[in-house]
Amino acid sequence: MTESPAFRDAMSAAATGAEGLQGAAVMLDDPGAAMVAFAAAELVARVAQGSPPDVVRDTAAAIRPALGDQVPAERFARIDEAAADASLPDLLAALAGLLASVGELYPGPVGEAAHTTARALADASAALV
């Protein structure tokens, strides 16, 4: 799969969004929310660094206990399926869905950063299809 300029730009935006997510997490008074935000940022960083799908899946699985039933189980199932299929476009789309859910859970700067990152991941996925 050839990486287009649109893909590289979207992944750069996702990495920047992840940095914003980490910055917003530092300001949180809620340690659980901060942990989720940091873990989500780490997840995006792993994808941006080109980590193998199983590493990304395992990183996503580490977030799941902190989110409990606040995020539909389908979000994690899609990540598992995309990782099993080694489909980068599907993995990026699944991660975008997870980040969008994180954004809905934590309004304010964390939610804004999560939504920005989710949009960038969705753009990266679309650039590969």
Describe the structure.
40% of the residues are buried. With 129 residues, the protein is mainly alpha-helical. It is built from six helices and no strands. The longest helix has 22 residues, at 5-26. Helix content is 82%, strand content 0%.
What's the helix and strand layout?
Elements: H1 5-26, H2 31-48, H3 53-67, H4 73-85, H5 88-105, H6 109-128
Counting H and I runs of at least 4 residues, what is the number of helices?
6
- By DSSP, the count of extended strands is 0
One letter per element, helices H and strands E, the order comes to: HHHHHH
- Estimate the helix proportion, in percent: over 70%
Q: What class would the helix/strand composition place it in?
A: mainly alpha
Uncertain segments of ≥5 residues (pLDDT<50)? none
Rounded Rg:
13 Å
Main sheet properties: none
Gap between N and C termini? 10 Å
Describe the structure in brief.
The protein is mainly alpha-helical. The chain is built from 6 helices and no strands. The chain has helices at residues 5-26, 31-48, 53-67, 73-85, 88-105, 109-128.
List keywords for this structure.
129 residues; mainly alpha; 6 helices
